[in-house]
Amino acid sequence: MNLRQKKKLFKKRVGKNPPGWMFYSSRRFHNFIRKPWGGLAELKRQETTRAVEDFNRNIQDRNTQIRRSRRYIR
């Protein structure tokens, strides 16, 4: 992206023009527009982490339900 596109994206996401002190390659810019800092690889890593956490949470919930149903009493 060139500078003009980054300014336009900032205005679209935040609703106002970017401040004069803004560095468009900084982490602060990415936080403002709610995009991961690190490109596509970082986005894929976050999605993978989220999917694994969701899977583990589903397994935990299922195990809790099985224990509560008292079908398998030791």
Oligomer state equals single chain
What gross morphology would you assign? rod-shaped
Order of helices and strands: HHH
Distance, first to last CA: 61 Å
In terms of DSSP E residues, the strand content is: under 5%
Low-confidence stretches are none
- The Rg value, from CA coordinates, equals 21 Å
Number of beta-strand segments: 0
- Average pLDDT confidence is 83
Helical region count?
Answer: 3
Structural class: mainly alpha
Helical residue percent band: 55-70%
Q: Biggest sheet, in brief?
A: none
Q: Can you walk through the features of this model?
A:
By secondary structure, this protein is mostly helical. 68% of the residues lie in helices and 0% in strands. It contains 3 helices and no strands. The longest helix is centred in the C-terminal third of the chain and has 31 residues, at 39-69. The termini are far apart. The mean pLDDT is 83.
Chart the SSEs and their pairings.
Layout: H1 3-14, H2 27-33, H3 39-69
Features:
3 helices, about 0% strand, mainly alpha, about 70% helix, about 70 residues, rod-shaped
Task: Provide a short characterization of the protein structure.
With 74 residues, this protein is an all-alpha fold. The chain has helices spanning 3-14, 27-33, 39-69.
